[in-house]
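Summary for the lay section of the report: proteins are chains of building blocks that fold into shapes. Here we show the chain for Yhl026c-like protein and then a coded description of the shape we predicted for it.
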Amino acid sequence: MPFRKHERIADKSFEDNTASTYAGGSSNERVSNERVSNESDIEAGVQVKPAGSHQKQPTDSISGHQIFYIFGLDGIGAAVLSGGINFAIAYGMYSTQNIARNPIRLFQLPNTLAGDAVVTMIIQTTMTWFIELFLANRDMKNGSVSPIGFIEEPSQPFMRWFMMLNLEDTRHTKSRLSVFAEHLIRIGLIFVVSFFLLWPASVGILTVIGTRGSGNDWDWYFQSKWAPEAFKGILGGLLGLLTTPVMASFWLVKEGWSLKRGGNLLS
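The coded shape description reads as follows.
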């Protein structure tokens, strides 16, 4: 009897330990299955956006908002803003001039409207380029506008260079000074195109408005108000209307290519 009692106790102890082991194994198996189930909820290859990111993906076609952004805000808006600023600058430059001592003329110094037009175009084109770089970068980062993704990357060497696609492959070998020089070259090209489109026509109109000198004086003269102010304001507005949408589109298209390549937003 004592031996049978001890056997029953030993058998019961063995069964309890075995059941505990199986229970532990089942618990570990459930944890493992839950972990696999949770991991399977995340699709392979899908990039999860960081919290707080408002970045939009490149569009497959032009959207109404992109049209408004390019031609409304950066077209008409830029024309009004640039025209107003240039008008105010011209008012400060010319309205207080003593035209008897410092006449306002078309070509000759010290107050040359033709020369003023060239300086205006250089400064405005340069400022607009970098301002649009900053604004487009900011607007795409906060989701105000989507990059353009329906335009294919160019294959022509010149267009790839102009769109700065060569810098993406050689960025590690380019210094900041070299990259800045690349920007200046493109600004210069845009200025040259704008110059031939606007400057000759502007000078031609001024020859009609101004008063031609007498005798050997071949230049054209202007009063301090309001021809110089209107000229500079209209020129600045037309330049903004012509160049700002082009520059905005430049950065939207370029960023669309960068994102399709798996790159990051403009830096």
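Put simply, here is one thing we learned. The radius of gyration is 35 Å.
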